[in-house]
Design goal:
Length: 266
């Protein structure tokens, strides 16, 4: 099976011709499925950009949303739209509302968006602030209340992932986990180095990482492969002998395929 993985394509920052070119490049890889790990566009353009991206290939597209995909709206509105995607285009599946996808006889796919929960690095003591706190309705206003809401969202996604993993690991020995933010500091790299302590709170989801470690330890005979984005910089780390995390490359204004994963039989 051939799985084309893209992340942080930010289609709102390019014109339609660039989206068409990306779609044709995806088609040229002859994928059986396409996976996008967030930051596809911004909320007001998300539907139109997804529709155009689908133009040149027929494979199903599995996705999680990134923080930018919520810009210009509120979480409830965006998630209502994402949940309804299959009614508009049956090839589109938001993993946040989907049971495990059985990719082949050996592998399943699950996913959650993930939210920066300010629990790694300097935590909430960091003087940095995400632009999300201006562009996402749920995170505007008093910082303390906004951070509490972000942590509520992070914890809810982590709880959902825990349930999804339990189901998927009973069905297949190898489970791929799609999420937007790196779940561990070791996978949050910039220019080859782990992000600075002041940055880590806003580029990682510790809640998701804790669930992954728990699942890997409880199912030592099973394998987990995490595919994340957000950093625009590649990373590949092993957090347990059966838990690997990959963070995909990206560049503003130059959307591309991060990697074509060829999933061969065991």
């Amino acid at each position: 099976m051939r799985l084309a993985w893209l992340t942080d394509v930010h289609l709102d920052r390019v014109d339609g011709l660039a989206v068409d070119q990306l779609s044709r490049r995806i088609a040229a890889t002859a994928p059986d499925a396409v996976l996008v790990t967030g930051d596809i566009s911004v909320a007001p353009r998300l539907g139109a950009d997804l529709e155009r991206l689908l133009g040149a290939f027929r494979a199903p597209v599995y996705l999680v949303a990134g923080n930018h995909d919520y810009w210009g709206a509120d979480v409830t509105t965006v998630r209502r739209f994402l949940t309804q995607l299959p009614r508009v285009e049956p090839r589109l599946r938001w993993l946040g509302s989907h049971e495990p996808i059985l990719l082949d006889a050996e592998r399943a796919l699950v996913g959650v968006d993930g939210w920066a929960d300010a629990r790694l690095g300097e935590g909430e003591r960091s003087a940095l602030r995400l632009a999300d706190y201006h562009h996402i309705a749920d995170l505007r206003g008093d910082f303390g209340a906004a951070l509490a809401r972000a942590r509520e969202l992070a914890d809810a996604d982590a709880a959902q992932l825990r349930a999804l993993l339990e189901r998927a690991l009973r069905l297949r020995p190898h489970v791929f986990v799609a999420t937007h933010l790196p779940p561990f500091a070791e996978a949050a790299r910039h220019q080859g180095r782990v992000a600075k302590p002041a940055v880590l709170p806003w580029v990682t989801s510790k809640a998701v990482g804790d669930v992954l470690l728990e699942a890997a330890d409880r199912h030592a005979g099973r394998r987990l492969t995490v595919l994340a984005g957000h950093m625009h910089h590649p990373a590949h780390v092993w957090m347990r002998p059966n838990l690997e995390v990959r963070t995909g490359p990206a560049e503003y204004g130059a959307p591309r395929i991060g990697e074509v994963l060829v999933l061969e039989g065991a």
